[in-house]
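Bug #77: duplicate submission created two jobs. Keeping one. Sequence:
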Amino acid sequence: MSTKHRLIIDCDTGTDDAVALMLAALHPEIDLIGVTTVFGNAPLYATTTNSLSVLELIGKGHIPVHAGFPRPLVRKAMPSERFFKTDSVQDPHGTYLDIPRSASKPASERAVEYLIETYRNATQPITLMPIGPLTNIAAAVALEPRFAEWVPKLIIMGGGHEVPNISASAEFNIWADAEAAASVFEAGFKDVLMVPLDATHKALVTAKECAAFGALGTPAGMATETVIKRRIGSYESSQKMDVPESAPVHDALCVAALVEPGIITTKRCHVAVETTGTLTLGRTVVDTHHRGGKEPNADVAFDANAPRFIALMMEIFGQR
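Kept job's structure:
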């Protein structure tokens, strides 16, 4: 019997984070030992409540949730206003998820300290998976210089090489705290996997598949239909995908790649983050042709096996 993947997810829980949390919490090969939250898709109070709500809905309310940073490390707020008015049809997340709302409180409001102490005292490997802005991770690196050494594997959902979403050159999670992201990629984590939009847009979920999740009749299946249906409506109104009536579920692909690495196709590259460009703030500069003269610091996903991704989620969310 294989050892479970011990995992901490750092998230800004909106719709795609919700699917990732459910996949991680329910997958039999993953031991989700904790969740830390950060601002991003919604304000911190909402991303924390959303995380608690998702875990309670699927009977995993015992997994501790620790609230983290409510704003970027350096900037007083995100670089500019959100592309879409919150809670409009174009917003794929909303403030609160359309599921029963938890009244539970987080285990602490000290996510960064939780991360540092957990990795300081770890006796078994624990993968760290940030799927929102990288503020909490950058703060941990700044507070504890050995933190990067202690993390055996870092799986980041963020960035885009050819595919941006929040501007002409940047992906939202990286853009939301570009300085934090830059420091994380420079921190010397020994095993980094970056899952950018280039890969997540190859693993789209269609309206038909969305309905199939609901037909599973399980809490996870029905919640997945609810949140992905919102995503599809948003993408149809603002940034149509190549496949009609479909949307990416970015964060869940990271969880899938943890248990089935072959679900994505990667290339080893050096990744840096632009923090000063007027037109390129938050761009992940992926040196695919090795022209920058720097050693690769990440495995970057460029493709994904969409049918297997859907099948995996169906398998896990169909369990009773």
